[in-house]
Write a structure and sequence with these properties.
By secondary structure, the chain is of the alpha+beta class. The chain is built from 14 helices and 26 strands. Helix 4 runs antiparallel to helix 14. The radius of gyration is 25 Å and the shape is globular.
């Protein structure tokens, strides 16, 4: 059944989103992602034997680690050697709902995946780094596109789609936004293997496991079930960890899955750093969980502005990135010769020396920043990113400003202009993303120094690359910002002369300024020319819902009331739009519930005194003065777990279960 036109392009409305504006101070040309990759993974075969797992830790300390309502790949990570993604199109909503109802019990939860991973890591440590052969499991994850959500729910999933919002990005889809992400020419959607039409892909089913044979059996079983539900598998994307010495590496030859962000409430904090970093990983900052999981507290308490169905879920980006490995390495010879002639590279430097500076790491993962002369393999259990910080390398003399890991996550080394002090690392927390990816295709052969050996034509033509997967709470301010404003932007870091150039690993064709110390003590630049050897062959914007939301969808239900989550702070200019009604904190300090024409239906009457509005974890909504005093209160404190909803029916409510604690804007019936 074709998606109705009304579900494809929901009504837009011009709305000021101060949540994004508050983050703009952060942004001012700054905002991160990272340079990591992991592999996807709950059991896809309920009868399959599952290895024993560790007992649960205290939920009060790390409550997200024992969450049984969220899907397991978002925070815990499947991390399996073999993965398969099925891109699905549903022909009939009723059949799709029945199929989904049967799938939900098989989906992995955070609790299951986290406990398995902990036990697996423990066994691996006992085996001195060797994977335990007796522990094997199959995981499944599921996400839906905008068209898929609309088909299952029978209505548009958003009551309103503010311009510039993540809801708009999600509704438009990856193909519509391809040009602004640099997916043009050979990477344009008309050549994609999947995702070229925003209504084509309804769902992505991720299957992952330790054993390739068992995974193949699971894939066959799920394909058969989809066929019986009158659904079509539009494309099957297989991936696997590279073999031998390249295990854990991507096809260019560099170790991946290194620099993932820590997540508050999931990763243990380190008391030695006042809880700002992950215990045992001093180089990894702890980021508020709401940057990855909708419904948790975000940096600065920014509002999510999303419907209740999104709570407990995460936006899911999938991209098939083809890598021309031989071409990428071939370009290094000419660039290295130019650097040697200018004196910017040692006379004995080999192509790996330059490749490491393009990536920002040596092939084994060690940062160039901490061992610039030659690669150093990390000690067992060592956090190789512990001392990594670009703060003391403002010119990029050690780690070039254009290097991949510096463009995608500047850490504490981002200066908005030469000579200005760098921004604190915390200012970039709102730009981080969690990556779950895996290579596809056979690797090219390697020479002793790690460079690619000349390949036979059939070997060079074999499809290979990376299945890029990321999870984030905001498509626009996280994934898209990093790609558009950092990786693809030649003038980032900003205001430098000459400009640094685009990311030489995943960015477009670009000149690059390789800066090195000059004779006068200043910086001199050698201009290099890097070409693009990564091509987009498919992309999808999806959403990984919580299990409660999926159970509702299996019954044809979807709660599209906009939810204001605990810890949210509304500041002047913030607007949360639920279609027929919207909650607005105006510049005068008044919290106002407006109808769709901007007329007030309710007001807190705090104009001239209100500075912000806050919804607390115990269910209390307050408008606060600049001194932090209460100017107005809903009087609903003491109800921990209460929910604040702005309903498309025209009212704002604070509810506890089925009980309404506070209501504003309810239409009075005439007698």
């Amino acid at each position: 059944m074709e998606t109705p036109p009304s579900l494809r392009h929901p009504a837009r409305r011009t709305v000021v989103r101060a949540g994004a504006c508050a983050a703009a101070a952060l942004a001012a040309g700054a905002a991160p992602a990272h340079d990591a990759v992991a592999v996807p993974a709950v059991p896809t075969n309920p009868q399959a034997p599952v290895a024993p797992v560790a007992p649960r830790g205290p939920a009060a300390d790390l409550p997200l680690r024992t969450d049984t309502s969220t899907q397991g790949d978002i925070l815990a990570g499947f991390r399996k050697d073999h993965v398969c993604l099925l891109f699905v199109h549903f022909r009939h909503p009723g059949n799709a709902r029945r199929w989904l109802g049967r799938l939900v019990p098989e989906l992995a939860t955070t609790d299951e995946v986290a406990r398995f991973n902990a036990e697996f890591s423990k066994a691996r440590r006992m085996r001195r780094g060797v994977d335990p052969t007796t522990m094997s499991v199959l995981w499944a994850g599921f996400s839906l596109t905008h068209a898929g959500l609309g088909l299952l729910a029978g209505k548009d999933p958003f009551p309103a789609v503010p311009p510039g919002s993540t809801a708009e990005a999600f509704a438009e889809g990856a193909a519509t936004r391809a040009e602004q992400l640099g997916d043009t020419g050979p990477s344009a959607p008309d050549s994609w293997l999947f995702g070229a039409s925003e209504d084509e892909v309804h769902a992505v089913l991720t299957l992952a496991g330790d054993d390739a044979r068992r995974l193949a059996e699971a894939v066959d079983r799920h394909r058969s079930a989809l066929e019986q539900a009158d659904a079509a598998v539009l494309f099957q994307q297989d991936g696997a960890t590279l073999p031998g010495a390249l295990r854990g590496h991507e096809h260019f030859g560099f170790l991946d899955a290194i620099s993932q962000p820590g997540v508050r409430g999931f990763d243990a904090p380190d008391p030695a750093t006042a809880g700002t970093t992950v215990l045992g990983r001093p180089g990894t900052r702890l980021v508020p969980a709401g940057e990855f999981l909708v419904g948790q507290e975000r940096v600065g308490g920014r509002p999510a502005g999303l419907p209740a169905w999104a709570t407990g879920g995460s936006f899911h980006v999938v991209r098939r990135l083809a890598q021309d490995v031989a071409g990428w390495w071939d370009q290094l010879g000419e660039c290295l010769d130019r650097l040697k002639r200018s004196g910017a590279a040692p006379a004995d430097a080999n192509p790996t020396w330059l490749a490491a500076r393009m990536v920002g790491r040596w092939p084994g993962g060690a940062p160039v920043a901490t061992c610039p002369a030659a690669e150093r393999l990390p000690l067992p259990g060592e956090d190789i990113d512990g001392p990594l910080d670009f703060r003391n390398d403002p010119q990029g003399w050690t780690t070039p400003l254009f290097s991949h890991i510096r463009k995608s996550n500047p850490r504490a080394g981002l200066s908005l202009a030469p000579g200005r002090p760098p921004l604190p690392a915390a200012d970039l927390d709102a730009r981080r993303i969690i990556r779950r990816g895996t290579p596809f295709g056979a690797p090219l052969g390697r020479a002793a120094d790690g460079t690619v050996r000349p390949a036979a034509s059939d070997e060079a033509d074999t499809p290979r690359g990376l299945i890029f997967v990321s999870h984030q709470a905001d498509l626009v301010e996280q994934f898209e910002f990093v790609v558009r404003r950092w990786s693809n932007e030649r003038d980032f870091p900003p205001a430098r002369n000459p400009v640094p150039g685009a990311d030489p690993v995943i960015g477009p064709d670009s000149p690059a300024a390789f800066e090195s110390p000059g004779a006068d003590g200043g910086s001199r630049a050698t201009t290099l020319s890097f070409h693009q050897f990564v091509r987009t062959e498919g992309a999808v914007y999806a959403f990984t819902p919580s299990l409660p939301t999926l159970r509702d969808l299996a019954k044809g239900r979807l709660d599209d009331a906009v939810e204001v989550h605990a810890g949210t702070v509304l500041r002047p200019g913030d607007t949360l739009d639920a279609g027929a009604v919207r909650l607005h904190f105006d510049s005068s300090g008044d919290l106002v519930l407006q109808d769709d024409e901007g007329r007030p239906r309710w007001t807190s009457r705090t104009a001239g005194s209100g500075a912000d509005a806050h919804f607390s974890a115990d269910g209390l909504l307050t408008v606060r003065t600049s001194a932090g005093r209460t100017a107005w209160s809903s009087g609903t404190g003491g109800h921990r777990g209460a929910r604040f909803l702005i309903r498309p029916t025209g009212e704002a409510v604070i509810v506890e279960g089925n009980r309404t604690l506070w209501r504003a804007g309810r239409t009075q019936r005439r007698r």
